Amino acid sequence: MAKLQLKNIRKEYNSKTVPIKDLSVDVDDGEFLTFVGPSGCGKSTTLRLIAGLEEPTKGEVIINGETMNAVPPGERNVSMVFQSYALYPHMRVAENIASPLKIRKTPEGEIEQRISEVVQKLDLEKSLLDRKPRQLSGGQRQRVAVARALVREPEVFLLDEPLSNLDALLREQVRAELKQIFKSQNKPVVYVTHDQTEAMTLSTRIALLYDGVLQQLDTPYQIYNYPANSFVAGFMGSPQMNLMTVNCKGQKAMLGDFGITLPELSEIPSQIVLGIRPEDVHLATETDEEVVTGKVILVEDLGKEQLLTVQVEGGTDKQLRSLIPADQSWNSDQVHLALPVHSRHWFDVERGNRLS
């Protein structure tokens, strides 16, 4: 049974450049953990620390109970798929796939057998095996890079934005294939991406980083529905969650001219951050309470849906976005929006922490 552990990992290049700050994460057999976050948050550095391409300033990288800090990359028994695929341009596809086995001096008969198994698993045409990487499409190169990782049968799989060079349609197709492939491996998988759709669809758990600090580690469902802070709330989800700093007046949060009932809090602050996802903001009906009124200032047609940006009455800097069905009609001068109680999120203004 394989297990990857990161214990209190810190990486410093100098006193001002600290991409990873006290990171602790466990990844078990069969788990697909995705590190996600904005550029420069430390996710690719974390992957390189696991692979041994860089050494942590502090903390431990542990695989199967053994500390790897002093173990060279080639002896860690991990496989890594790079963003650029990192295929050897002078080698044929078959030679690229076989390269990690030849380094380990695996017998030729076993090499041929493993290549045959992985080519079949990835649905790679056998005619491609004699080609050079420059003769392949982006999707084919990506499959070859994954095949090279699989053929080694490592203890841990590492993938650094492997789909970023593919077009949108191919990315969706390969994403589904990757999920099936790595599910069957039953080994720890650590995936890095800035694409939240990839993170949500592929992962059993997501680790969201910002400025080298772990913001939340949880299932895609929990992160989407119960974000730990306003950064997580704003980063995960497309279109982005509505996040507005509003004044509190009694038991109400004032959104423009309209009072929104606050949750039960031990102490009511002077200001609070109200969050609600555009798909949860709908055109009000007669049964809705606490309706917000405003003027539509922008309409974005998304095909089966339309995204309305509404200027709230009495709030010069308060705008709400609402995602409604494309065939739903609305008044261009004034719309009434409902913000369901169960869909509201509340965050602290100073630290951004979730309040309820």
From TrEMBL:
SUPFAM superfamilies: MOP-like (SSF50331), P-loop containing nucleoside triphosphate hydrolases (SSF52540)
Protein name per Swiss-Prot or TrEMBL: ATPase component of ABC-type sugar transporter
This protein's GO CC annotations: ATP-binding cassette (ABC) transporter complex, substrate-binding subunit-containing
Methyltransferase as UniProt keyword: no
Residue span(s) of domain ABC transporter: 4-236
UniProt entry keywords in alphabetical sequence: ATP-binding, Nucleotide-binding, Sugar transport, Transport
GO biological process per UniProt: carbohydrate transport
InterPro entries noted in UniProt: AAA+_ATPase, ABC_transporter-like_ATP-bd, ABC_transporter-like_CS, ABC_transpr_MalK-like, ABC_transpr_MalK/UgpC-like, Mo/tungstate-bd_C_term_dom, NA-bd_OB-fold, OB_MalK-like
One Pfam family of this chain: OB_MalK
Record Gene3D superfamilies: 2.40.50.100, Nucleic acid-binding proteins, P-loop containing nucleotide triphosphate hydrolases
Keyword Nucleotide-binding found: yes
A GO molecular-function descriptor: ATP hydrolysis activity
Biological source species: Dactylococcopsis salina (strain PCC 8305)
